[in-house]
Specification:
By secondary structure, the protein is of the alpha+beta class. Helices cover 27% and strands 40% of the residues.
Length: 186
Amino acid sequence: MKQRIFIYIFLLVLSFNITFAQEADIAIKNITLVPENPNIGDKLLFNYSLINFGPNITNISIFHELESPYDNIKYFYCCKELSVNNVFFIYNQTIINASGPHVLRIIINSSDGVLDSNLSNNKLVYIFTVKNVGQSSPIFAKINNKKLSPRQDLSGLEIVYLFITIILLILIFNNIKIICRKHRNK
């Protein structure tokens, strides 16, 4: 009887593993750039779609990187559930600050352990050139010093925080002494 139960459990586990390991086919489709021939200072909108050709629902993680001559913009999105024959659209917008060749890399993966039957359509490298026409935006950000008005004076609040901190430190120090005494007595 025990052997029969063991065999049933073994077959149940084996069938579960076979079902779990069925492959999905995730693919990148329809990448577009707006405008198609960007200039420096243009707002570049790039979008693409991901599709799951099946046979299983899967969670996907997406990594894309826009590499320019001066900097890289990276984006990571995790755990979007993608049903069979369902399409997921990605839109991203950035301002172009440098002329020359730019590379858009997109990589998608199944993030829930479901295997992909065709890895060749999970990566895309898209190269485009930005013309040296237009005006670039500054790459730095100016931080403005803000002065508090007399009504927003924090000196009283700072004294309260200091007082609370001192009390907490005294309590911690006293508890450490008590704990050390208990361990010495053992």
